[in-house]
Design a protein that fits this description.
Shape: globular
Largest sheet: 8 strands, parallel
Helix content: 25-40%
Strand order of the largest sheet: 1-8-2-7-6-3-5-4
Number of strands: 23
Structural class: alpha/beta
Radius of gyration: 26 Å
Length: 563
């Protein structure tokens, strides 16, 4: 059944006390539909795409609207904690990441609570979700389809979803009092260079910026690349203490962002960088920030996340007292894909044919007992699921690819007619402000210091570079214009993630360790490398090629079989 609901209200809680069942298109981000689910008197399980989103929502409670606690469930949540929470909290409100949804299956099966799949569009658009995770979310949701709600402001068309979703009520919520976002458009050949030179560097240097009559002192920056973020911080000479980041919670990311604090809540840093892990559902409240989105169309994964979720990204700032509320800077280039839809569909059909043949050959190898030496097609894991002892085609993976080719690319091109999409768009021409370089600071130091003492004056905001220059002089009595050489001369090791992994490898030999000893040693290495992360036994699976976890006489062990 197609149902259209029209409301004239600021928040969903003003007009409803329960979330409609079915496939719900809320049409507007930030309308508070998830808050309705968290704050009513119904027992509720809400599943979300990221750990950050689960924690961000859970930490808002208890508050004046809901006096109970909300439990965030993710990879490191013990099942005993779930059971204790469930027993002593009525109504219970559990917000769980997609990959941890199986942890609460018993609660869903044993109690007639509702299941909400929040930010449901990410099940196909988020390329970082493992196929088996997406498959399991749909499977569990189907088991409870009489009390499930899929919620999104940018929903996926039904033809790309499992057939059973079309049997649900299709609910569209229309809000009659919405206003259009106002973009400040910066079309640039090199979006990241523009980000660094036109926005970050001058804001860092002068402490404030005014653009088209709008003043701001902080930036919420959406860039879907960890490497780009760390490179930007390095090239602009930002002090890492002025930066925060919201990104996927993995050890690989922690190695890359060492020294940059993960932002959860509280006062926002001057520069807050957000990858696709922060697009959906998070709440940011700041009175001085401007939102900025960078989209680089030459990169497949950045294109999907930035454009499909543009509406999501610009809705994260929730402080309506901020004069920049509803305004965002949009930096993009015009590189388009060269291949036609027909060519890309043909490639997918070719991959499917290869995967199907590979499954048949694997089944034959199993019959002959030769599966250990069997080599599968390169994309085999991305397009298959292991069920009931054999591999099968992952239909959702192929649907996701078709969705990207046939829908996302169209939205993407349409998105660039942004002046037509937004009534009040304003365009800014390139305006690169003269920004100080590391060499400028070295020249200034040489000309003005007295025995190493100096008033840095207009350069005093460049704290990271100042530290290198002053330490170089203190140790060697001289300074160098080559920043890499200067760092090496003061024995300041600027670890990359590969170097960090090498250090961790060298801290362990192959063999067995008690879980306690293994985690303690790993925690010591993290502290030495400046990684702000609690060591967990499952980190060894990410770090080493082959690891086994076992129990011997009641004690848990981690065995490193291959480094």
């Amino acid at each position: 059944m197609n149902i259209i609901k029209q409301y004239s209200a600021e928040y969903a809680s003003d007009v409803m006390s329960v979330v409609p069942l079915g496939n719900v298109d809320k049409t507007v981000c930030g309308c508070g539909l998830t808050s309705v689910a968290l704050e009513n008197d119904e027992p509720m399980v809400i599943t979300v795409p990221t750990i950050y989103l689960a924690l961000n929502k859970a930490r808002q409670y208890p508050n004046k609207r809901f006096s109970g606690e909300v439990l965030a469930v993710w990879g490191e949540t013990d099942e005993i904690d779930i059971d204790l929470y469930h027993c002593f909290n009525k109504p219970f409100k559990i917000i769980v990441t997609y990959d941890s949804l199986p942890k609460v299956k018993n609660i869903l099966n044993g109690f007639k609570c509702k299941l909400i799949v929040d930010e449901a569009h990410t099940l196909l658009s988020n390329t970082k979700l493992k196929p088996e995770v997406v498959d399991e979310v749909f499977k569990i949701a189907e088991e409870h389809k009489d009390r499930v709600s899929f919620i999104s402001a940018t929903p996926t068309p039904l033809e790309y979803l499992p057939d059973w979703v079309s049997t649900l009520d299709q609910v569209t919520i229309q809000w009659t009092n919405t206003s259009k976002a106002i973009p400040i458009i910066a079309e640039r050949q090199y979006p990241y260079k523009s980000l660094q030179e036109e926005f970050i560097a001058p804001l860092s240097q002068y402490g404030t910026m005014t653009l088209k009559g709008r003043n701001f002192r902080k930036l919420i920056i959406f860039v879907n690349s960890i490497n780009r973020i760390t490179d930007t911080i390095k090239k602009t000479g930002l002090n890492k203490e002025d930066c925060g980041i919201i990104c996927g919670d993995s050890l690989t990311n922690d190695l890359k962002i060492a020294g940059i604090k993960r932002y959860i809540d509280g006062e926002m840093p001057k520069f807050l960088f957000i990858t696709s892990a922060g697009f959906g559902g998070i709440d940011i409240y700041d009175s001085e920030a401007m939102t900025l989105v960078v989209s680089n169309t030459s990169r497949h994964w950045q294109m999907i996340d930035m454009l499909t979720d543009l509406q999501q990204a610009i809705s994260r700032q929730r402080n309506k007292d901020n004069p920049n509320y509803g305004t965002f800077i949009y930096i993009f280039n015009q590189t388009l894909f060269k291949k036609t839809e027909e060519e890309l569909i043909a490639e997918i059909d070719h991959i499917r044919s290869k995967i199907t043949k590979s499954i048949q050959l694997y089944d034959h190898a199993v019959e002959k007992g030769l599966q250990d030496g069997f080599e599968t097609y390169p994309d085999f894991e991305a397009y298959t699921l292991f069920k009931d002892g054999r591999y099968v085609i992952n239909e959702q993976a192929f649907l996701a690819d078709r969705y990207f080719i046939l829908e996302t690319r169209k939205r993407y091109r349409k998105g660039f007619d942004i002046k037509a999409q937004f009534n009040c768009a304003e365009t800014i021409e390139p305006n690169v402000i003269e920004v100080a370089t590391y060499k400028d600071l070295v020249d200034y130091f040489r000309a003005n210091h007295q025995n190493g003492l100096i008033d840095w004056g207009i350069y005093s905001y460049k704290t990271a570079w100042i530290s290198i220059i002053e330490r170089s002089y203190k140790i060697h009595g001289k300074v160098w214009k080559d920043i890499s050489h200067a760092k090496s001369m003061i024995k300041k090791i600027d670890y990359g993630d590969k170097q960090m992994k090498e250090i961790i490898y060298n801290s362990f030999e192959t063999g067995s360790y008690t879980r306690k000893v293994a985690k303690e040693r790993l925690q010591e290495v993290y502290a030495r490398l400046g990684i702000n992360k609690k060591a967990q036994h499952h980190h060894f699976d990410e770090l080493f090629t082959k690891v086994e976890h076992k129990m011997v006489k009641g004690e848990r062990f981690v065995e490193i079989l291959e480094k």
